[in-house]
Design goal:
The longest helix is centred in the first third of the chain and has 31 residues. Helix 7 links the parallel strand 2 and strand 3. The chain has two domains: 119 residues, translation initiation factor eif-2b, domain 1 (Four Helix Bundle (Hemerythrin (Met), subunit A), Up-down Bundle); 196 residues, Rossmann fold (3-Layer(aba) Sandwich), CATH 3.40.50.10470. The chain is globular, with a radius of gyration of 21 Å. The strands form two sheets. Strands 3-2-1-4-7-9-10 form a seven-stranded mixed beta sheet, sandwiched between helices. Strands 5-6-8 form a three-stranded antiparallel beta sheet, covered by helices on one side. Helix 2 packs antiparallel against helix 5 and helix 4 packs antiparallel against helix 5. By secondary structure, the chain is an alpha/beta fold. Bound molecules: ribulose-1,5-diphosphate. The site of ribulose-1,5-diphosphate has 18 residues, from helix 2, helix 6 and strand 6. Ribulose-1,5-diphosphate binds next to helix 2, helix 6 and strand 6.
């Protein structure tokens, strides 16, 4: 029988799905927060019931957005520790404590990671730099803000990022800091590239081969940067690295509703025009200069080393077993 989860958990899942909570880091923290809510409010009497409730919440949250690897990794962080505690034979209160502790630890580490990336990343920014950014990444913004607060006179070109215009959020946040910002349409990225010193973006996922998944259009911008010989930096926490890609799995690219591109009822639909709305694309490692993580700055080719360090304790078999466990 399916457990009735707290209302707030459905609300969080819905907010992630319809992008009121967005950006890979915030998505992961919100999902883990939801697991903490389930753990704290569970009325389960038996350990099995408690684990089942947590499992149901995990599956609900996992289905909200498919591309941000931070989401399954955040959920895995809590559920793996819960599973170990269950194997140890802990009772409901013991399991609750472990789950809440793991959740809080993930959120704390995640916030700490962003601060550290800001420190490492800002060292790559020079006084007088003009930096092109795409979409809205909290991590990329924190790098730019840190550089600015350190006294570097930077300016930013923000691509507006159709169809949801996250570039406007970036422009708002940076402008409120006092940073000079120019907003451009996505199609103007190559036009401006020669006036730019660097490109900086966040990530939704990083694959074992160093390819980076980020907002649709990032790979075109990176291609233009490559053509103009401009460095491309990606600022991302290591929990956005995808362990499944070590086993050759591909990252799923989310396809969002057509009405984000063309409003419902538009004449073009009647004419039979199809609309496609992939939310992310893949930038190959050869167009990426460096990936800035909380563990240090690495070339994209070293992504596998990060994955082995973070997830090396799981053999391929273990990982599959665990994956099945959380996707049940
Ligand atoms: C957001 C996006 C961001 C990454 C990183 O896409 O592509 O660049 O998620 O964000 P969406 P952060 O708006 O569709 O969620 O650095 O904040 O984790």
């Amino acid at each position: 029988m399916e457990a009735k989860l707290p209302k707030r958990v459905y609300e969080i899942a819905e907010a992630i799905r319809d992008m009121r909570i967005r950006g890979a880091g915030k998505i992961a923290r919100a999902a883990v927060e939801a697991l903490i809510i389930v753990a704290e409010s569970s009325k389960a009497q038996k350990a099995e019931e408690f684990v089942q409730e947590m499992d149901e919440a995990a599956s609900l949250l996992l289905q909200t957005r498919p591309t941000a690897v931070s989401l399954p990794n955040g959920i895995r962080y809590v559920m793996h520790r819960l599973r170990l505690a269950h194997e140890e034979g802990l009772d409901v209160d013991g399991l609750r404590e472990r789950a809440v502790q793991a959740g809080r630890e993930f959120i704390r580490n995640s916030i700490e990671a962003v601060k550290r990336i800001a420190e490492y990343g800002s060292r790559l920014i020079e006084d007088g730099d003009t930096i092109l950014t795409y979409c809205h990444s909290t991590v990329a913004v924190s790098v730019l803000t840190k550089a600015w607060r350190d006294g570097k006179q930077i300016s930013v070109i923000s691509a507006e990022t159709r169809p949801k215009y996250q570039g406007r959020i970036t422009a708002t946040v940076l402008r409120r800091e006092g940073i000079p910002v120019t907003l451009i349409v996505d199609g103007a990225v190559r036009y401006f590239m020669r006036r730019v010193d660097k490109m900086l973006v966040g990530a939704d996922a990083v694959a074992a081969n160093g390819a980076v998944v980020n907002k649709i259009g990032t790979s075109l911008a990176a291609l233009a940067a490559h053509e103009s010989g401009r460095p491309v930096f990606v600022a991302t926490e290591t929990y956005k690295f995808s362990p499944e890609t070590m086993l050759g799995e591909l990252i799923v690219i989310e396809e969002r509703p057509a009405d984000e591109v063309l409003p419902e009822g538009h004449e073009l639909y009647r004419l039979g025009v199809k609309v496609r709305n992939p939310a992310f694309d893949i930038t190959p490692p050869q167009y990426i200069t460096l990936i800035i993580t909380e563990k240090g700055v690495i070339p994209p080719q070293a992504a596998i080393a990060i994955l082995q360090r973070e997830f090396g304790w799981m053999s391929a078999r273990e990982l599959y077993k665990y994956q099945t466990y959380i996707q049940k």
